[in-house]
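Summary of Year 1 activities. Much of the first year was spent building the evaluation harness for sequence design. The harness presents a backbone, in tokenized form, and records the residue chosen at every position. We chose the following record to illustrate the format because it has been used consistently in internal testing since the harness was completed.
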């Protein structure tokens, strides 16, 4: 049933949202608590969730037919589907009306239609709407119209809403069944006459002006300019550097999640897998250089407990919206450290050789975090897995990149 499909889609959406932020209470748990509270409230007959005629205060209420049982309203507008099939509501109504029922018999559906038709105290408007399924003689709308036309002999009339709501209104032939007023009408004063709409303002028919900045947030990894080319596996010793960079990247992602005392043995087991085809000397070199980065005396906190990987960030840098993902981040009392990995790219010897593309990308991340953590120093680093090499970038050069 379409209701179950929608519930499945909602669960997939909740799982996706949870994956974006795992440090907060799971959204599915919050939704479950909310729904449980609503169910308990309905079992107790909580007046706060049950609409009553004497508390409407002129407001428009939108209710399912099930929720309207036992209630009465001065005016009811009832949209009924034109699609047919098993004396049931049209597609869309069915999902709104089913409340735990696996299926409903035609008799039950007719009783539900009776409930819908008898909620109005003074006036009932029945409207038809067409869904994706073809119209049918057994739809709720067709049954209601046949009862008015063939049984009650309602009078035919022509209606046109365009004078009231403009050219977007609709017109056609309707049926009207009326009876004499049995009680004195209650009035809260003379009703105001409906006035035709005034002329539309000129700006409504004009295209919106072009925005000064792109409508979508700027992604630092796709900033203006060309990213340096990747290392070629066909170059001299290129295959070794190519595979080495991938292995180092994997170790830098995985080892920080382990206690420091377990990292070396885990790296040894990983690099010793036959599929990597590494000699004993190559394994020792990659392990030694990777652990050297993780144990850096100045920036080892980036890979210590409390650091976070793959952190999504979004915000404004000046008047420009920016959204991206930081490879690794740690927030301390007086400073914030961020590192951006560069895999399969040649490692510069010093900061002066770092391509401007990487500098601008890192500068945007730094500017975002400076707004999120005001008063704290933000230090930025690039980590080239070809080595690996951890390269701090000075704040002066990052600020100049955005000037």
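For this record, the design step produced the sequence shown next.
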């Amino acid at each position: 049933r379409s209701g179950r499909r929608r519930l499945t889609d909602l669960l997939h959406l909740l799982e996706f949202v949870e994956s974006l932020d795992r440090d907060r209470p799971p959204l599915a748990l919050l939704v479950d608590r909310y729904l449980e509270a609503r169910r308990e409230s309905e079992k107790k007959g909580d007046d706060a969730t049950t609409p009553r005629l004497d508390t409407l205060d002129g407001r428009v209420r939108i209710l399912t037919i099930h929720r309207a049982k036992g209630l009465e309203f001065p005016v009811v507008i009832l949209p009924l589907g034109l699609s047919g099939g098993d004396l049931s509501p049209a597609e869309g109504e069915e999902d709104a009306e089913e409340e735990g029922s696996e299926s409903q018999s035609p008799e039950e559906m007719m009783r539900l239609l009776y409930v819908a038709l008898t909620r109005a105290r003074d006036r009932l408007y029945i409207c038809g709407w067409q869904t994706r399924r073809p119209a049918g003689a057994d739809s709720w709308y067709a049954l209601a119209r046949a009862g008015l036309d063939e049984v009650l002999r309602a009078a035919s009339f022509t209606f046109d809403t365009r004078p009231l709501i403009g050219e977007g209104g609709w017109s056609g032939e309707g049926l009207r069944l009326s009876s004499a007023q049995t009680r004195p009408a209650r009035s809260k004063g003379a009703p105001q006459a409906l006035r035709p709409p005034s002329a539309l303002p000129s700006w409504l028919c004009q295209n919106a002006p072009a925005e000064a900045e792109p409508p979508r947030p700027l992604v630092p990894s796709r900033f203006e300019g060309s990213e340096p080319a990747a290392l070629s596996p066909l170059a001299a010793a290129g295959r070794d550097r190519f595979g080495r960079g991938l292995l180092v990247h994997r170790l830098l992602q995985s080892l920080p999640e382990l206690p420091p005392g377990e990292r070396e043995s885990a790296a040894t087991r990983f690099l010793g897998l036959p599929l990597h085809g590494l000699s004993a000397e190559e394994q020792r070199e990659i392990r030694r250089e990777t652990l050297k980065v993780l144990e850096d005396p100045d920036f080892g906190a980036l890979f210590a407990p409390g650091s976070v990987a793959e952190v999504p960030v979004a915000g404004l840098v000046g008047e420009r919206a920016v959204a991206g993902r930081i490879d690794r981040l740690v927030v301390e009392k007086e400073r914030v450290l961020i590192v951006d990995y560069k895999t399969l790219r040649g490692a510069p010897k010093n900061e002066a050789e770092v391509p401007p593309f990487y500098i601008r990308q890192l500068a945007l991340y730094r500017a975002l975090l400076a707004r999120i953590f005001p008063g704290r120093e933000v230090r930025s680093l690039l980590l080239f897995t070809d080595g690996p090499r951890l390269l701090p970038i000075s704040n002066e050069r990052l600020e100049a990149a955005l000037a």
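The two ends are 57 Å apart (CA to CA). Quantitative recovery figures across the full test set are reported in Table 2.
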